[in-house]
Amino acid sequence: MDYLLGRDWEIYPAGGATGEAFLAKNNDQKLFLKRNSSPFLAVLSAEGIVPKLVWTKRLENGDVITAQHWLNSRELKPDEMNQENVAKLLWKIHQSHPLLNMLKRMGKTPLKPEALLEQLQNELDKSLAAEPVIQQSLSFLEKELEYIKCEEWVVCHSDVNHNNWLLSQTDELYLIDWDGAMIADPAIDLGMLLYWYIPKQEWADWLRLYGIDQTHDLELRMKWYVICQTILSIQWHMNKERIEESRYWLESLKSIIKS
């Protein structure tokens, strides 16, 4: 990695789960480097959704390195997720034809609810499947499946956690970490964001900022997908032996089912 930029640059790990991200520094110049980023990154940069892409280089071993401007920025706080700029950026993402066309060219196809439920059922451990709240959740998912219809497939981020939203010192908002991008029902992103961050009595106001009305159909779709995502998260934490986190999400699932 060092020889890409020359001797004047210092390169440090930038954290993250994959270990493929780095900070490059040369006096006041800083770049964010990543190994084997998706070609999707170039379109995200052109759309202004992630920090600007500076260059892309292919190494002799076939790896691709991308460099983006390093921003003086901070992650959004949970109580900032109700702001208009979050709603407007998510709307922009969901309405972007360049993003959708790029994912299609990459071979992505819409994630149908039937396929998501099948994935969920296949990944569940027997011990987790025996939990009463899991059984209740699966019953709900199976019962409501026929009513989960999507009129418009869009690009979904699929992990709209507040840690993935960056606000620059000049108040430019970005959504980063697109490894889980998919073509899906926008209710996947909307449900996750609303259930995690927005009091239910404020959903209608937030959705108006986003650009749509709160309807029974949308509420059902959001609840259906949030239950799926929560069960998958519980299983993921159990696989990683993160017992405390899995218990937290089990309790969250109980609250979602009751809502």
Architecture overview:
This protein is an alpha+beta fold and 259 residues long. 44% of the residues lie in helices and 17% in strands. The chain folds into 2 domains: 2-70, Phosphorylase Kinase, domain 1 (2-Layer Sandwich), CATH 3.30.200.20; 75-258, Aminoglycoside phosphotransferase (APH), C-terminal lobe (Aminoglycoside 3'-phosphotransferase, Chain: A, domain 2), CATH 3.90.1200. The strands form 3 sheets. The protein has a 5-stranded antiparallel sheet with strand order 1-2-3-5-4, with helices on one face. Strands 6-8-9 form a 3-stranded antiparallel sheet, with helices on one face. A two-stranded antiparallel ribbon has the order 7-10. The radius of gyration is 20 Å and the shape is globular. It starts with 9 loop residues before the first strand and ends with a helix. The model has no long low-confidence stretch (mean pLDDT 91).
Instruction: Give the proportion of residues in helices.
Output: 40-55%
- Examine the coordinates and then state which fold CATH places here, giving the name of the CATH topology of the largest domain: Aminoglycoside 3'-phosphotransferase, Chain: A, domain 2
Number of helices: 10
Largest sheet: 5 strands, antiparallel
Low-confidence stretches: none
Order of helices and strands: EEEHEEEHHHHHEEEEHHHH
Q: In the CATH hierarchy, what is the architecture of the largest domain at level 2?
A: Alpha-Beta Complex
Overall pLDDT score: 91
**Tell me, what's the shape?**
globular
Tell me the β content: 15-25%
- Lateral strand order in the biggest sheet: 1-2-3-5-4
Distance between the termini: 50 Å
Structure classification: alpha+beta
- CATH H level, superfamily name of the largest domain: Aminoglycoside phosphotransferase (APH), C-terminal lobe
Nearest-angstrom radius of gyration?
A: 20 Å
How many discrete structural domains? 2
